[in-house]
Batch of 3 targets.
Target 1
Amino acid sequence: MKEKIKALALFSGGLDSALAIKLVQDQGVEVIALNFVSHFFGGKNEKAEKMAEQLGIKLEYIDFKKRHMFVVEDPVYGRGKNMNPCIDCHSLMFKIAGELLEEYGAHFVISGEVLGQRPMSQNAQALEKVKKLSGMEDLVLRPLSAKLLPPSRAELMGWVDREKLLDINGRSRHRQMELMNSYGLVEYPSPGGGCLLTDPGYSSRLKVLEDDGLLKDEHSWLFKLIKEARFFRFSKGRYLFVGRDKESNMKIDEYRKEKNLKFYIHSAEVPGPHLIANTDLSDEEIEFAKNLFSRYSKVKGNEKINLNNSGNIETVDIVDLKKLDEEIKKYQQL
């Protein structure tokens, strides 16, 4: 009986990774999708699961948060424009996929990377660096650009036919979209990066944590809060977080309970943001926090209101908004 060939796929649920899987599936290869979960991307989501269902493949979530943090902290090949260590990150995902080959009875690993799509991390030299650093070498197949790259073991061994793979190059995704439509795979997310580390605003806030010595796995709750809430820094490692909306307020409440944080502010009568601090605050900082609540509440700082300050009902007078705006500029991390 002919051996059944299997492949593991790095799978975000997006256009390129889905098309890469389809191309290999059409050659009779069984594909298992691996969605890598870090603090900054990946994780259980409806879009990835719907795409896996369309493709008829098994989807596995691979939690690699702790290993990924070592890459984020100290990447061999450095970072891109922001906090994104793309080459090291892709290498780690390939390395872990390689470690899982035996467990899944698979023969090689595929990804949706496209030559030239990202100038810094997906040029020919960068793609080779990824393979070398991962230790996977010729076990990596990139179906969308395979004809423009050195043959992989899957091609050399006849597990897939190189002639049925593609030669896509560059940033345009028109060809991929046309092919997906021809396959009838129409429900896929709009092309674009899903990694927080490529976002300039988020990266600047994360850099604050790094400069304060808090870019560590044990501080991962802060990674979430700097995305969900307004972020104020009083001094090294001393932060205040202010909710932006109902969902943000809920996240703040979750972390307050989980971390047993002593300082918090929320509404006593007027709808407004929830606030927490990861540290004890001075009297001046508490006053600033109370004024922030009023400023971002329904009254916009223009009326006297009551609020709940760490379990105590207190009154905040009409806020000097000009003075507060200057303080906001001093402390807020944009």
Target 2
Amino acid sequence: MPLQPGAHGQVPYFFLSYAHIPMHDPNSRKDPNKWVAKLFADLCDHIINMTNLSQGQAGFMDVELRSGHHWPERLSDALSTCRVFVPLYSPRYFESEQCGKEWAAFLQRVRNHEGPDGQMPEAIVPALWTPLPPEHLPHVAQSIQFTHNDLGERYSDEGFYGLVKLSGMRSHYQKATLELAKRIVHVAQRTRVAVLDPPPKYDELRSVFHDYSPQRPLRVTVVAPDLDHLPSDRSPYFYGHTPQEWNPFRRGGNTRTLVSHAEEIATAHGFLPDVGSLEEHTDVLASDAPEEHPSVMLVDPWATTTPDCRRRLRGFDQRERSRTSVMVPWNLDDRETMTARARLQRSLESALRTNPPDSSPEINSVTAFRGALSDALGRAANQVFKTATAYPPTGAPTRRPRLMQPEDPR
């Protein structure tokens, strides 16, 4: 079956799946993903010169789609039509729920294309962004070769990030990039995976990295009503069928939930978020056991107007929770919330006296929320480093390593 252009554009030759690092300061001109973008551009340039593709057909990378309301549709479109899936391996990658969903979407196509001998097509071409021990990979990735000796010895040692960042590695980066592009073209020409029609519903996919165990879990508790448990004087506009679908800053095309922003920020800081509702996390929140890992609680002030919510929050509030950041968004454009703000503030304070919310600066926009959460997780990460067990190397001291010469001869 020939590949057909998707609803939002042309068929991409390859799909680059990477762990997106969100920008902490929206006013900064520094792009934290610029080195991945360079790798993507160089791969596209090579592929265009190796094939008869026009510019724009070589690859797909979600550089600016995460904030748009067509983001899930465009991702699904690209994943259901691309020829080759290129996951960019790093610890952050396998901690990312979004990357796990991208892999799951492409895997649906691969499994549907299983041959008569039971073999699935070789359409996934991994690349190393940073070195990663094979034994740390999730099960879905363990059977796929990712070292690729043709890319050079330094590639296995440094990954693409090390090669692109160090000036002495320029020739190694050029070789590795060219060889990866050759590999993508070879696989694309040898294997044609059928288009998945209709495209998968991206929001309903489950990450295939569920067995990956990062070193820094993060509990995210959503304290918000669902559509079946709204206060009588609250409209349903900002809510969904579960507390996790709460979107306090919904407006126009902004359909991203607060949880999706929290997951993105958490993975950028090296945490794996475990998201659940207040009801789902009640037992662990009310436990007397000391906190081993940091956690975040996202509180809708409207939720605290119900007796059951206040009871659960007081059980949490009575314990020492120094590692929990309580965050309460206030949408200044939400007339209902602003009209009832004094009442909501009293209700909130009655439930959370010991563990007050992070309210300085006030969280009154998505940008403010992302900044406040990033700051909170930065503090949490520093606390983890301070309290983590140190494992110094054994044996006699060795000489300090020296920097390489201008061009590494290896």
Target 3
Amino acid sequence: MHADITLVVNGREHRLSVDTRASLLDVLREDLGLTGSKKGCDHGQCGACTILIGGRRANGCLALAVAHDGADIVTVEGLARDGRLSPVQEAFIEQDAFQCGYCTPGQLCSATGMLDEAGQGWPSTVTGDLGSEPVLDDDEIRERMSGNLCRCGAYVGIVAALREASRRKEAAEA
């Protein structure tokens, strides 16, 4: 069975007829040709497929496309703006926060969402003071990014990149 849906992906509207069983990840990759988001485990456990739906992090492999009719979706291809890398992408490059690169698109989308969540004051399980904006120290970053796995073990670089991106975001907002 197919259903007609509309998705706004990286700022562009797409009208599609999709199998009602298709995941958002498969629609992005197979129907729209956006292959940055990767299919790792296909069970929502590795984070390689992380995208932003309405600004919030989500595993594309677990999201049914038909359930997101009208949704605003950002993939790794949409993080850069006007030919400039996002601050998170720049920090990943500067801190050498990747090795093979397979998990990097999901890490970048997750990190972008995580920084927004922290900026809105959302606590994690390791946030000390629930009455103030979370401080993105290494423990906080690791906890918030725990849903994104890296088989190469580039975690030291990823944490350093997110620490740097967080500093830049704070400086830009000040």
